[in-house]
Design goal:
single chain; alpha/beta; Rossmann fold; two-stranded antiparallel ribbon; globular
């Protein structure tokens, strides 16, 4: 049976690689031996894409890139490497050429747009008292508290960084829509998924933090994508 590709997980804004914790455990239990999680600086799309490319190059063999939230923009920009065999979007941005996450959000503002606040250094935060209801209303109080306290704020300018050559135009894609997403409008997710023509779209009754609240379903989609590109 053909080997499945390595899985490289790319986090979004307001978190780091640890946001994938439950998905990582789920993939391990399903026999995935090569799983990596990028820790991006969230300083610019160019920085984050190049940081992701460095990990993909180190893996060497076939790679399935998986992006959550802004991480979808990152895999869209970084997925042009020849060993990237597919892209999985988890409640994620999928910009076209010349588009930015900020532009896409302005076109269809999410429910939690007023929960964001910028600090004097140019970083963009989710207000601590709004984090649970905005980012992951289906998480436990304790899970949301930890994510809120450990949130990793991006440079606000990153929202305006545009994609150059979207990898989804050349690579097979899969997409997970979060029907209760307050950070990206669910209809915006459906719109981005529809124009990509993905192999599969999965809709979950989940918040933006579906990778933490529904890791089994997210891992199901990743596994299906990995099996398909491996010809299983």
């Amino acid at each position: 049976m053909p080997d499945r590709p390595a899985v490289v997980l790319v986090h979004g804004f307001w978190g780091g690689a640890a946001h994938w914790a439950k998905v990582i455990i789920e993939l391990r239990d399903r026999g995935f031996e090569s799983v990596f999680a990028v820790e991006n600086p969230l300083t610019s799309l160019a920085d984050d894409a190049e940081n992701t490319r460095m990990m993909v190059r180190q893996v060497g063999g076939p790679v399935l890139l998986v992006g959550h939230s802004y991480g979808g923009a990152v895999i869209t920009e970084a997925g042009d490497l020849p060993n990237v065999v597919g892209l999985v979007y988890v409640a994620a941005f999928a910009p076209d050429a010349g588009e930015s996450p900020g532009q896409l959000s302005q076109e269809m503002p999410p429910a939690a747009v007023d929960s964001l606040t910028a600090d004097s250094d140019g970083h963009l935060w989710i207000k601590r008292d709004k984090f649970h209801e905005s980012f992951g209303q289906d998480l436990t109080d304790d899970e949301a508290l930890v994510m809120s306290v450990t949130q990793k704020a991006p440079m606000a300018t990153t929202f305006g960084d545009t994609v150059t050559a979207p990898a989804w135009r050349a690579k097979p894609t899969w997409y997970q829509v979060s029907k209760q997403d307050h950070m990206i409008d669910p209809d915006n997710e459906r719109r981005m998924a529809r124009r990509m023509g993905p192999r599969r779209v999965v809709e979950l009754d989940a918040s933006h933090a579906s990778l933490a609240s529904q890791p089994v379903a997210v891992a199901d989609l990743i596994e299906a994508a990995a099996n398909e590109v491996a010809g299983r």
